[in-house]
């Protein structure tokens, strides 16, 4: 994307004294509910009031949003509180209705980002708009697909762009609803540092008691803002009840979050940081070297198995290794989740090496 520095112009113009905050209910349920939450948020750090108008559900039969009538409620929110409004759009009709009701910020959801056809339809409908448009990461960890969606919008002369990191689906059971895969967001930041990056801890965690920790991690990684689902009575929410917080809790979260300020001017800090980073660089090189040697051993095992016509996967051996490494990792202060993910990746690479030899 050329002239990427222009992409964050809309955010810089806001000159916020704190990270950008987008908050409001997962779903607009009733006019009373929408307005009550808005009034509870109007004198807080919230910059945009979000509410789902159309709610694509994984399976039919669940509440799928109130539809266009909810846009009138958002108009009333702006009139009564002065809050700017935001909602998700998934097709041309959604876009046209949202623009007709003067919604200030539109975002493309994870299920839509997966399809270039849908993204292109939305980009065509938004062509040249001065509204802010954010793109959630696709449900699967695919950086090219995510950036491709942004590029389609940028090609449609939409300049006020940004992305939302909401985590990625996985078949594995973890403590998260959607695993963060922070490295993917970091890589996006590295490639396009001027593209505003918002974190959605509600969808990453799926649990309200984890929202603070994920939000703090995002701010530590220099994310530009947060999108946090907020409801006046979360337990009775019509959708995603477990991940919504009360307006009071949102205010407390924002007060407790620590904003890390850059201090590059401090010579001692820079020297210490550079020293530690140099140590990490050395260790990283050692890790690559050790992994390379491990795969050479795997190649030798593959040759033996080929000679004896033995299957590559030996389940008992693998389970024994995994159990031992989890215990070893815990003794070194490594979480079980990290050790599992790391050794599963190493094991898969080892299998790939052995299969290549056996099938050659």
UniProtKB/TrEMBL annotation:
UniProt protein name: chorismate mutase
Pfam families: CM_2, DAHP_synth_1
UniProt keyword annotation of Iron present: no
EC primary class: isomerase
Native organism: Muriicola soli
Keyword set, alphabetical order: Coiled coil, Transferase
Molecular functions per Gene Ontology: chorismate mutase activity; transferase activity
Record carries keyword Isomerase: no
Domain Chorismate mutase: 267-358
GO biological process terms, semicolon-separated: chorismate metabolic process
Coiled coil regions, renumbered to chain: 259-286
E.C. no: 5.4.99.5
Domain of life: Bacteria
Xref: Gene3D superfamilies: Aldolase class I (3.20.20.70), Chorismate mutase (1.20.59.10)
């Amino acid at each position: 994307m050329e002239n990427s520095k222009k992409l964050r112009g809309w955010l810089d113009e806001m000159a916020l004294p704190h990270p950008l905050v987008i908050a409001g209910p997962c779903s607009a349920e009733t006019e009373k509910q929408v307005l009550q939450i808005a009034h509870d948020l109007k004198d807080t750090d919230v910059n945009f009031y979000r509410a789902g108008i159309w709610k694509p559900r994984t399976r039919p039969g669940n509440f799928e949003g109130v539809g266009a009538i909810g846009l009138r409620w958002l108009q009333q929110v702006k009139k009564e509180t002065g809050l700017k409004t935001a909602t998700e759009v998934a097709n041309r009709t959604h876009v046209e209705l949202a623009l007709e009701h003067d919604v200030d910020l539109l975002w493309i959801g994870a299920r839509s980002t997966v399809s270039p056809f849908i993204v292109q339809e939305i980009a065509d409908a938004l062509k040249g708009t001065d509204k802010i448009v954010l793109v959630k990461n696709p449900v699967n960890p695919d950086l090219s697909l995510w950036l491709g969606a942004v590029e389609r919008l940028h090609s449609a002369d939409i300049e006020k762009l940004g992305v939302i990191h909401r985590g990625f689906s996985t078949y594995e059971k973890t403590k998260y609803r959607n695993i963060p895969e922070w490295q993917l967001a970091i890589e996006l930041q590295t490639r396009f540092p001027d593209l505003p990056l918002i974190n959605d801890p509600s969808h990453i965690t799926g649990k309200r008691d984890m929202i603070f920790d994920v939000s703090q991690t995002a701010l530590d990684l220099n994310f530009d803002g947060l999108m946090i689902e907020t409801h006046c009575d979360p337990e009775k929410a019509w959708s995603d009840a477990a991940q919504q917080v009360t307006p009071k809790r949102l205010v407390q979260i924002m007060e407790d979050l620590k904003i890390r300020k850059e201090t590059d001017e401090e010579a001692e800090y820079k020297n210490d940081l550079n020293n530690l980073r140099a140590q990490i660089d050395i260790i990283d090189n050692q890790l690559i070297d050790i992994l390379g040697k491990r795969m050479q051993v795997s190649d030798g095992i593959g040759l033996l198995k080929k000679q004896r016509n033995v299957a590559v996967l030996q389940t008992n051996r693998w389970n024994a290794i995994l159990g031992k490494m989890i215990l070893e990792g815990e003794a070194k202060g490594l979480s079980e989740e990290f050790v599992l993910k790391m050794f599963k990746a190493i094991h898969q690479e080892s299998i790939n090496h052995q299969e290549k030899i056996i099938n050659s």
